[in-house]
User: Fold these one by one.
Assistant:
Number 1:
Amino acid sequence: MNKKLYIKTYGCQMNVYDSDRMVDLLKPLGYSITEDPAEADMAILNTCHIREKAEQKVYSDLGRLRQHQTKRRESGEDMMIGVGGCVGQAEGQEIIRQAPYVSMVFGPQTYHRLPEMIAQMNREKEKKEGKKPKGLVDTDFPLESKFDSLPTPTSTASSVFLSVQEGCDKFCTFCVVPYTRGAEYSRPAADVLKEANNLVSKGALEITLLGQNVNAYHGQAPYSSSHGTNEWGLGRLIYELSQIKGLERIRYMTSHPRDMDDELINAHGEVPQLMPFLHLPVQSGSDSILEAMNRKHKARDYLEVIEKLRKARSDIAFSSDFIVGFPGEREDDHKATLDLIRQVKYAQAYSFKYSKRPGTPAGAMELQVDEEVKSRRLHELQGLLNEQQLSFNRSMVGTIQVILLDRKGKHKGQMIGKTPYMQSVPVTAPESLFGKLVKVRLESAHENSLVGALLSSDSANAMFSHMSESLERNDEV
Ligand code: 5AD
Ligand code: SF4
C-alpha cells in the first residue's frame, strides 16, 4: 500500500542528511513523501536542541500534528508520530510523558532502527486491538555505527550532502552537541568514496561533506600507506574525492579552527573542485570569552588560520558563527568580537544570542548577560556583518560566475543557483537547465543575493575569453 510520510527538519545540514536517509529507509516499507501533514500516515519531526527556541518549536508543532492525528482517526485513518533528532535524544521519555500520542522517540544515532520500531509498534497495536500502545524510546548510543545499517542513498540531486563525521569531543561549554550527537566518529574513507561515487553516478555535481567537526575527520584509510599512517584526514579525503570524474564541486562544513591542518589548507590552493568558501566559526573575538567557552584557541590563532588560507587561495570567502552575551561577556569582549570581524571581512555569517542549555557548563555559570544587552549587542554585530556581506556581494557585480541551478525560485520560470562563494543568484532560465552549472553575469547586489543574467551558450562562449580577466578581479576581493 502506498503510505504517506511527512518529515519536518529543524536545525543543521546534518539533520537534512539524516531526514533524507529516513526517507530512504522508509521507501521500501511503501512510504512516499508528502508536504501536507494532514494526509500523512507517518509524521516525523527531526529536531534540533541547539538553542531553546528550536526546542520550544517542537512542542508547538507536536500540538498541531496531534490535531491532524485526531481528525484522521475520526475518519478511520491513523497517523503514527515520531520525534527524532537532538530533542528526541535529550528529552527521551519526557516527550512521551508530555505528548502520549507520540509513538516513537529516537536520536541521531538510532534512526536506522526506524523500520524495527514501526514493526514493533504495529505488533503492539494488534495485541491491543487497534489501541495505541505506549510510545517507544530508543536513545542509546549503539556500538555499531548507523552508517553500517543505512541503505545506499537514492538521491539524484545535483547538489547533495554526505555525512563523513559525527559527534564531537570538544565540549565547548555552551553546546549540547557532544551530549546529543555523542562522541566523535569518522566513517571509513572507503565507505565515503563509495557513497560519493554512487551519488556522482546518479547525477551529483556538488558534494558537501558534513560533520559537526568535519575537519577533525580521521577515517580509516582504504589501504595502509608506505608512511605507516592508517588514517586519512579531511585534506587527504578531499584530494581523493577530487579524482572522481564528474564531481565538479566539493565543500565541507562545519569546521573548527583548531583542526585546520596544513594538508587541508593546501588542498584549498591545489584542488580546483574545492570551492573558495569556508564556514569557520569563531564564536567570539575575545580571548577571555574564548577560554570560558573552552574553544582552546585565541583570537590571534584564528586570524593566523585565516591568513594561511588566504595565502593558499587568495579569493577564499569566509563565514562564521557568533554567540553574543555568553556568560561574563563585557563591553570590551563584545568590542573585541567586532574588531575581529573588521579584520576578517566576512562574506556572510550567522549570529545568535547565547541560549542557556540544560546540562552544559555555561548554563550554570554566573554573570549571565541580560536579554536587553544581548539584543543590543546582536543588533550591532549583525549591522556590521550585513554591511560586510553587502560589500562582498557588490564586489562581484560585473563579473561572470558559474552557478549550480539546484533550487526552484519563488517566481515562475525562476531558478536559484549558488556561486562558488555561496552567494544565491536567482535567474530566469528554461526548466531544462535545472541541476546544471551555468554561467551568469552578475548585474547588481543585495544583502542576501545577487541579480544575475544567464549567458546564452553563444555569448557564454564569446565571454569565455574574458572570464579569466573577470575572475582575476575576484581574486582581489
Ligand atoms: N546558544 C547560542 N548559540 C549556540 N550555538 C551553539 N550552542 C549555542 C547556545 N547555547 C551556536 C554556535 C554554533 C552554532 C551551530 O550554534 O554558534 O556554531
Ligand atoms: Fe558544539 Fe563546540 Fe563541538 Fe561545535 S566544536 S559541535 S560548538 S561542542
Number 2:
Amino acid sequence: MNNEPLPQAHIVSKEFRIYNTLTNKSEALVPKKKDHLTFYSCGPTVYSYAHIGNFRSFLTADLILRTAHALGWDVTYATNVTDVGHLTEDDLTDPSGEDRMVKALKSKEGEQFVNIWDLARHYTTTLVEDWHRLNLREPTVRPRATEHMREQIAAVEQLIEKGHAYETDKGVYFSVTSFPDYGKLSGNTLDGDLEQTVRDVVVDDDKRDPRDFALWKKDDKHLMQWFSPWGWGFPGWHIECSVMAMSYLGEEIDLHAGGEDLIFPHHECEIAQSESLTGKPFATIWAHTRFLQVEGEKMSKRLGNFFTVRDLVAPEAEGGKGVDALAVRMTLLSGHYRKPFNFTMKTLRGNVKHRERLEEVIALVGNPLDEPGAYEGDTGAILEGMYGRAKDAMLDDLNTPAALAQLFGGTKMILGNADHLDETARAAARRWLVDMNALLGVVFYDDQPESADEEDPLAAQVEPLIVARAAARAAGDWGRADEIRDELASLGVEIKDSKDGTTWKRKQQI
Ligand code: AMP
Ligand code: ZN
C-alpha cells in the first residue's frame, strides 16, 4: 500500500469569503479550530410575529451554515431569543418608558395572553414555526435570555470588579472610557455619535459619561424582574448576547452576524463587554445584512406593506395569502444580503413560477429523497458543473443571485430535455437537486417533519373529492365531475390532470 499524500493538484481548497464590517473588507473565513466554524447570529425580541425583514437576517445565517456544510465543516451555530423586553425607540421622549414586550402585552393583541411569560412563549413558538416554514436549518442551540440570567449577573459583577462598570441609583453601566477600542466596529468615534439615544442608552444624571450604556436596570415594578446584587431589576439588552455567545461558543468566535441596525449600538457594546471580560478579540468576522424594504418603502403596518411569514404563507382561510413558503425564501435569496433589498409582489409571483418549475423537475426525474442519484453521463457532468458554480458563488460572500442563476439554468435544461432523459440523466438530476437544495434550501424541506401532508386538514377534504371526480369521469358522468371541480375551486384548490392522474395545490393569491 502506498501511504503517500495525494498530489496537491487533487486537493481543491476554496476560500469562503465574507465581508467583515470590522475591517471593511472581504476576508477569508478561517475557523480557529480546523474545519469547525463557531458562529452566533442575533435573534429577535419575541414581542410579535417575526417579519420578513427579520427573516432576511436569519436567512443570511442559514446560508453561512449551509455553505460551511458544503465545505464539509462542522458548525456550532447559536442564535438567541431575546425574551426580556427592551426599550422601544419612542423612549426618546420617555426615558423611564415601557419596553417592547410590556407594550405588546397591553395592546389589543396582547389581550390573548395570561401574562408576559405567556406572550414570550407564544412568539418564541411561532418564531420557530416560521423558521421551519422558510426551511431554515435548526441552530445547534437557541438560547433564551431569561434562561441565562445567572450568567448575565455574574458577567456584570466581573465587569464591575475589573473596573469597566459602576453602579448608580438606577442601574449598572458600562464605562465606555474604560475600553479605548469602543467605536471600532461602527466607526462611531466622535462622542456625539456614541451618545445616540437608541434603545438602551438610558437617561440617568448619575451616569459618568452620556455614552455609557446599561448593563443592569434597577426596577422592582417591572413585569419581568430578577434579584441581583443591585436589587430587583433586569439586564441591559447587550449583555445577553455576549454571555450566551461565550457560553456556547467560547471566548473567541469565528463569526458574528445580524442585521445592519445592530452594528451600533448592539454589536459595538457586545464587543466592549466581551473583550473587557476576556482581554481577547471577541469575533473575527462581523457580517451584517442590509435592511429589506417592501415595494420600495420601509415596512410599516400603516402603509399596509408589513408582512410576517404567516401573512404570506398561511392559507387564505386563515387570513394568509397561501403563498408557497419556499417561493418566499427564493424571493429573499434573489437579492445579495449586503445590498438593499426591495421585496415586491411582482418578484414574489416570479418566484412562485420558478418554484412550480422545480416541482415539475421533481415530477419528471423522481423524488431525490426516495431515490438519491449520482452524477454520471453527459447530463451529470453538466449538472455537476452547475452545482460547482453555485457553490463557488456562495463561497464568494454568499452571492445568492449568481447561485440561483445556476439553479434556474439547470431547471431550464432538464425541462427542455424532458422527452430525452434516460435513467442515468434522471439520476444525475436527482443528485443535483439534493446538492442544490443543501446549498440553497429552496427545492424541498430538508429539516422538516416528514408527514406535513398528513397533518394538512385541507388534504383530508380534497383527496376524497379527487377520487370521487375520477370515478365520475370514468363513468362518463361529466356533470358530476364538473360539480366536484367547482367544489374544489371553492376550497381554494387548483387541480391538474395528466396521464398519471390528478394532482392538486392551493391557489396562491398574490
Ligand atoms: P429585532 O427583533 O428588532 O431585534 O430584530 C431581529 C433581527 O432582525 C435583527 O438582526 C435585526 O437587525 C433584523 N431586522 C429587523 N428589521 C429588518 C429588516 N427590515 N431587514 C433586515 N433585517 C432586519
Ligand atoms: Zn444580539
